[in-house]
């Protein structure tokens, strides 16, 4: 494992990559939270703008001149956008941060300090909260087929949140202390990684549309001998689905399809399964049926997101 320069010798501690499209209000609040709660962490903030038609680019340049803005002129997509930003980071650690996520006091300091003290850490996040301050359940084990029933936003988990299957999956949701703990996957809504190693791995896997790309990336870090950690003292509020991915009916439908495609990619890539292996075919069939059911639900209530691609 390559060493990271001591904090005293670094010009910058943390690169923050934010992918944005037509979410000027959320982006302003996100950038304001970084400026307000950066503390002693020296940050290099990069906004990759995917062809916004609103005032996102102009607002950022006008109100946050310290931010590097990279207008793409078109919608590259979430995953390629993050990879563009990763290539411009000049810091040992890179934080992928959604434009609808806001960091709280000390969050960035706690994440950087944890990296500095734990050279075996490859990916680190804090506790990601819903706007009502409840845990979003993003510090997890890698899902199994059972998570179609006991997943993070499934009906069973919402009605019976303390059932043993959901508790085993969402290991962070039921912890009450602030001690860091090791997990298998984190959410790229707020996920810091080792910059050099992330680049060496090719960044995020561009086979993914949006979802589960973070789980697959964490898996690659773990296969390289690194650990994945949650530092719950670092708090981040995430207005899930409000950064642009589910703003319109068409986007919500694409998100539902993309969620299930990405679920299949994650399962087969992490377990190194070829498409014609029986487990891969079984997962594809189950996800296909679930996707069709949720698309039908979406047609019945077109103004609301399904449980895949945004909160109900």
What labels would you give this structure?
nine-stranded mixed β-sheet, 11 helices, Spore Coat Polysaccharide Biosynthesis Protein SpsA, Chain A, 312 residues, alpha/beta, disordered C terminus, 2 domains
What does this structure look like?
With 312 residues, this protein is α/β, with parallel strands linked by helices. The protein is 38% helix and 18% strand. It contains 11 helices and 9 strands.
Oligomer: single chain
Number of domains: 2
Proper CATH architecture of the largest domain: Alpha-Beta Complex
Give the fraction of residues assigned to helices. Answer: 25-40%
Q: Runs with pLDDT <50, length 5+?
A: 308-312
Instruction: Name the structural class.
Output: alpha/beta
Query: What's the CATH class of the largest domain, please?
Result: Alpha Beta
What is the H/E string?
A: EHEHEHEEHEHHHEEHHEHH
CA(first)-CA(last) distance? 42 Å
Number of strands: 9
Tally of alpha and pi helices: 11
Percentage of β-strand residues:
15-25%
Show the helix and strand layout.
Blueprint: E1 14-20, H1 24-37, E2 43-49, H2 56-63, E3 68-71, H3 78-86, E4 93-97, E5 101-103, H4 107-117, E6 121-129, H5 147-150, H6 155-159, H7 164-169, E7 181-183, E8 190-194, H8 195-200, H9 213-223, E9 227-238, H10 249-270, H11 278-300
Parallel strand pairs: 1-2, 1-4, 2-3, 6-9
Antiparallel strand pairs: 4-8, 5-9, 6-8, 7-9
Helix pairs in contact: 1-2, 9-10, 10-11
